[in-house]
Amino acid sequence: MPRGQRKSLEEKIQAKQELINALNIRIESEQRELEEMFEQKRRKELEAVSDIIEDAGLAPEEVTEVLQQYIESRRANAS
């Protein structure tokens, strides 16, 4: 039973290249969207930390000093 006309090898190659190009465009778009989501997450985390600092009535310098002491203490305990 005869089927429709078969695609030539050149047509198959071209179709595959077009598919790959379309997928690459999709990947780039999804990557940009993912990066935006990471940025939103980072902003929310920073806002949460900022809110805690503000609620505690601490100056940024005080927070920096306390965190530095904490980091040094952890390093000393790890050794």
Features:
single chain; 79 residues; mainly alpha; 2 helices; 0% strand; elongated
3D shape:
elongated
Q: What about the largest sheet? A: none
Class derived from helix and strand content: mainly alpha
Low-confidence stretches: none
N- to C-terminal distance: 79 Å
Secondary-structure element series? HH
Number of helices: 2
Overview in brief:
This protein has 79 residues and is an all-alpha fold. It is elongated. The protein has helices at residues 9-56, 60-78.
Report on the structure:
With 79 residues, the chain is mainly alpha-helical. The protein has helices at residues 9-56, 60-78. It is built from two helices and no strands.
Please write out the topology.
Layout: H1 9-56, H2 60-78
